[in-house]
Amino acid sequence: MIVWVLDAESGIKLLYKSFMKIESDEDIVSGFLTAFHHFSMVEFRQSLESIEMGGLKWTYILEPEPYNLLFVSADSRDAKTEMLKARLNVIRKSFIDEFKSVWKKKKSSWVNGDINVFLPFRRVIEDFYNQWIEAENLKNVANLFDILRVFQQVLILLRTIINKKMYSKSRNLILGQIEKRFKDLRKQGEFKNQPELKSITYTRDNWFDIIDANLIKCDYKMVLTYLERIIIQIVDVMKEIKGKDLCFKYFSEGELYAYIYNNMKFLKELNLDSFFFETFLLL
After folding, report:
1. Residue range 113-164, pLDDT digits in tens
2. Which of 119, 151, 173 is at the close of a domain?
3. I need a labelling partner for 87 at 20 to 30 A (CA). Which of 72, 116, 127, 185 fits?
4. Burial of 72 (0-12, 13-18, 19+ CB in 10 A)
5. Is-cis flag, bond preceding 195, omega within 30?
């Protein structure tokens, strides 16, 4: 996350705080942000609220007269706009509350005099940021446990289908191919240097075991990607050996579709609905 507090008229940077590494000069960017804001006001008659550019997502909040401040934040493209704006709004309110008296002493101007008076507010931003990251980490841990339970249940349903719906020849072919592909998956560059992922195990007799506290130490997105790849590999193997039509039949009779349908709201909350829909319903 990167934060600018700018005088909306002059474009002068009152405060800058970055939690990301960027190569651009902060003062040059400050001028560009103000010019871009003025352009949106002239062309669209309203302040620009958010935009994606330069590989980042940008959020604007204009504090109108009498203060005339422009608050800008930037973060990675996958950050949610609503979250960025909410966080920036917290910073906006805190900044104005903190420096109302300074604004009056400067005779209703932010840039009349030494702007170093605003520097201590960077610590306030740091405190906010640390709180948000801590809360996000706790949420990710909770979500990860929910995700692990969902994938474990889907894997159990797939194992039941393979064991009960197929003759021994097909079953052995499928289990053998899954074992081979899982070994290959573990060797892939993005996964092989993640020791915590080794807690996800597979054997023909015991199937997959993924409920393990060690996964909390691993990158949240990495675990999710790894589990999705496992499911995709299993489905691909089943399609290759039994064909799409039979797979549709097995997934229906094996109550896998029923599980997805009955838990659709929960899957949406975990952002898993699209993945399971595409993997099992769009074979």
Report:
1. 788 899 999 999 999 999 888 878 778 778 888 998 999 999 999 999 999 9
2. 119
3. 116
4. buried
5. no
